[in-house]
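Take a minute with the sequence and fold tokens given here and flag any structure token that looks odd. Thanks in advance.
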Amino acid sequence: HFVITGFVASNTQNVPTTLQRDGSDYSAAIFGRLFLSQGITIWTDVNGVMSADPRRVPSSYTLTEVSFNEAMELAYFGAKVMHPKTMLPASITPPIPLYIRNTFQPSFPGTRIYTSSATHSNRDKCVCGFSSIDSMALINVEGSGMVGIPGVAKRLFGTLESKGVNVVLISQASSEHSITFATTLEMAEVAKEGIEEEFRREIENNHISTVEIQKPCSIIAAVGDGMPTTTGVSGRFFTALGDAKISVLAISQGSSARNISAVVYTSESTRALRAVHAAFRLSHTSVRVGVIGMNEVGLSLLKLLEEQRNKLRSRFEIDLMVVALMKDGMEEKEEEENGRIVTLKEDGEKHNGDLDWNTCSITMEVYQSLTASTEATSDNTVAKFTPGDLSTLPQHVLSPDCAHNIIFDCTGETNVGQYHATWLKSGVHVITANSTGLSGPIKQRNAIDAVLNQHGRNVSYLREVTVGGALPVVRTLHDLLYSGDCVHFVDGILSVSMSYILYRIAPPPGAKAGNAFDEHSSNGAFQGVSFDTPCLFSEAVKEAVDLGLMETDPRRDLSNEYTARVLMVLAKELDDLDKCYDVEKIQDSSDQLFLDDECNDINALYTKVNALMKERVESAAEKGCVPRHVSSIDVKAGTIEVKIVDVPLNHVFAITPPSCECVRFFTERHRSYPLIIQVNKFCCVCLPDGSLSFLIICYENISSGKHSLTIHIFLTTRIKQHTGTFCRS
């Protein structure tokens, strides 16, 4: 055994000196080569070579093995675990494996550095890690006088050498119109002055037009031996940067394709690192979520996000972090408590080197304990109350280090819908169960359209849940239109409350027998609900209120306000028919059971409507029909209607079960037999197999940067059926 001092040395004049940074590691590698060792172990204070800087990418991890070339690239581009020169003695033939181990965790296996790594064989892991260099400046020398002139590059870099400027990265256009290079921040002005002095005559004659410095910058480098043999690496790298809204200032890649480097602004470097790290499945794609409207729907959504978080993170590498919750849209000046936002205290804490995911997201338990507490803040929770209102909500959702941000609007409040355009413009995706955004004043609707037209590539506005509850009405309509079909007419039962009420006062004969057949043929999988005995209209309304199908004051539903808003959203997808209508116009032309100002006494209203509807049911029965609440959009005629229609007993609307919604599409391809979508909105625990297909779509689209849209589809599909109540949302 030998014990050798490595850091202390002497120069050629036998003067004592040191080997400076990582000198001991370099000495160990030299002696390992001299002794022809079977392995060289470097004991340090980290677990090994990381896939990225853990201070900037919390989900980075220790690489089990990397090649000598990969380790050199990572070390040069900022990985401090070892100096590039340390690997030179070990990489000489015959190579000697290097091991990076942690002195404080000797049981941890660390990283093995040898001739090859897993990036050669694993396509998804073709990039082993990412590194960055900060405090850089980018200098661009540009001018038409540089095109086709030999010796320009020699003069440029000769000047830099004479000034002692180290060039870290070079990028030149094939037109030779410009040369761009990166150097350290402190040498930027020296480099610029030297270039201007050397090319003084060319600048005076306008042959060189610009010597420009961009600072501060950072260089983001993707490293992997598997990159040369894997197609699409550059595309995935720069797609991830584009989706994260990162401005790429310069690009550099050698012919070996082991390293792809991009220069970005330092202010965006952390977000860039996290985006590319997730794009190559080295970590999860983080999505910051805000929810407004902590009613039954909002609480169910919060619970769903908590339940599905681990599955999405482990199977699909997407991490949904709930970072802000707002009870409702009331202004702080109206009610201080409701105007405050529940936010995270921190965006996550490290424990023993691993990220504690429980501190990265607000859970149901955290929210309930905080809102039940008399203190504004508590040491026993990861969240806190933060003053704010609808205008400041995006500030608590957006983060410079996260590219994907979502706000769920679970309210039915008109003042919240007014902020949808503002949220979209700030760069936040909006998923809304609130139809007032797209059914409000024409100015408000135009504002949303303008934002989507201008920023539609960067933000999504998903309104699927606003039409038909759990029915995929909007998505089906999009599929029909995008496939080239022409929609002529759409009708259906779009109000779950009116569906229940009219079924109760006029149930179709034989419904019970049909349910018995379905229960038998499905081996008990079908569990139907039927009402053979009709009841009074007022009794049906009270039942609907008790079930949560209606507001406490049923007049809002009975006046067709909700249905009119749903039709406005649907009409927007059909040649912008909503431009000719508003909610009031639809209400005025619809079959209303009463007018808002007609009667202030609800009991008197019930007496009047009971008699009216009893007469209507009897009249329909004489014709072999039952009355049903039917909404329709005639695309060709440009009309939108809400009517109480007498439909035959065997019609799909007649047999649509209570609290169900049903929509029919009459298209060019579906003239004789319309496309029908129907679901029982009352089933709060039914999670259909369709959610699995959405997860598969989500997984397939992650690699192409379509995180936001696919997450929207999955979550809205689940939340529409997860809630056990029937709020307007």
Observations:
- Residues 435 and 466 are 5 Å apart (CA to CA).
- The longest helix spans residues 296-316.
- The two ends are 75 Å apart (CA to CA).
